[in-house]
C-alpha cells in the first residue's frame, strides 16, 4: 500500500516460525481463547522469536475473565496501567457475581453482535467446536500475563472493555 502508514503481511501459519522483517506490532484478535496453553505458547513463542525488543509490541484483543476475589493495590498487577479492575462496593463480588457469564455467552451469542456475514449457524457451530474439540479456554488477567511471560512477553498495559479487552505486551 503506497502512502499508508501501515502494511498488512500475507496470512501466515501461527504454528510455524514467522517470516520476514520484525513488525512494529502483532495483533491477535480473539485467537488465544480458542486454544489451550501449549498451543498458545507455540503461537506466542513464534511471534516473540521474530519480535525486536524496543520496536515490536503484541496486541491481544480478547475477553478477560474477572476474578471473584478482590484485587487490591500492591497486588502483582498494580504497576500495569489499566490492569486493576473497577472497584465495586462491598459486599458485592468484584465480578458482580456473574462469574464469566459474558465471556462464555460471547461464544454462544456471537451472531447478535457480529456483522451480517458472520451471522450464520455455521460460524456459531465452529466456535463451539473450537471450545470442545481443541480444549479452548477463557483466561483471567493472570492467565494472560503468565502465558505471555512463559513465551517471552511482558504485559505492559491493559484497556478493559465490556466484552473484550486490549492487552499490550512487549518482548522480555
General description of the model:
- By secondary structure, the protein is of the alpha/beta class.
- It has a single domain, classed as Rossmann fold (3-Layer(aba) Sandwich).
- It contains five helices and six strands; from the N terminus they run βαββαααβαββ.
- It has helices at residues 37-49, 101-108, 110-113, 121-133, 141-150, and strands spanning 25-29, 57-62, 64-65, 139-140, 153-159, 165-171.
- The chain has a four-stranded mixed sheet with strand order 1-2-6-5. A two-stranded parallel sheet has the order 3-4.
- The radius of gyration is 17 Å and the shape is globular.
Give Rg in angstroms: 17 Å
> What's the domain count?
1
What pattern of helices and strands is seen along the backbone?
EHEEHHHEHEE
Q: Percent of residues in helical segments? A: 25-40%
- Report the biggest beta sheet as strand number plus sense, adding barrel if it closes: 4 strands, mixed
Mean pLDDT: 78
| Percent in strands | 15-25%
Query: What are the segments in which pLDDT stays under 50 over at least 5 consecutive residues?
Result: 108-114, 117-124
Q: Give the CATH topology.
A: Rossmann fold
Distance between the termini: 31 Å
CATH class: Alpha Beta
Helix count equals 5
Amino acid at each position: 500500500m503506497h502512502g499508508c502508514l501501515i502494511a498488512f503481511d500475507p496470512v501466515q501459519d501461527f504454528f510455524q516460525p514467522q517470516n520476514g522483517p520484525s513488525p512494529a506490532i502483532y495483533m491477535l484478535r480473539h485467537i488465544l481463547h480458542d486454544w489451550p496453553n501449549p498451543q498458545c505458547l507455540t503461537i506466542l513463542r513464534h511471534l516473540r522469536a521474530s519480535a525486536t525488543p524496543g520496536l515490536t509490541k503484541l496486541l491481544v484483543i480478547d475477553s478477560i475473565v474477572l476474578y471473584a476475589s478482590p484485587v487490591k493495590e500492591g497486588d502483582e498487577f498494580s504497576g500495569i496501567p489499566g490492569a486493576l479492575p473497577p472497584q465495586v462496593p462491598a459486599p458485592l463480588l468484584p465480578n458482580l457475581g456473574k462469574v464469566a457469564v459474558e465471556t462464555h455467552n460471547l461464544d454462544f451469542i456471537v451472531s447478535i453482535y457480529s456483522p451480517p456475514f458472520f451471522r450464520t449457524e455455521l460460524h456459531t457451530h465452529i466456535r463451539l467446536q473450537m471450545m470442545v474439540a481443541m480444549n479452548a479456554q477463557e483466561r483471567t488477567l493472570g492467565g494472560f500475563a503468565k502465558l505471555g511471560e512463559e513465551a517471552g512477553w511482558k504485559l505492559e498495559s491493559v484497556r478493559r472493555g465490556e466484552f473484550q479487552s486490549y492487552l499490550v505486551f512487549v518482548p522480555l
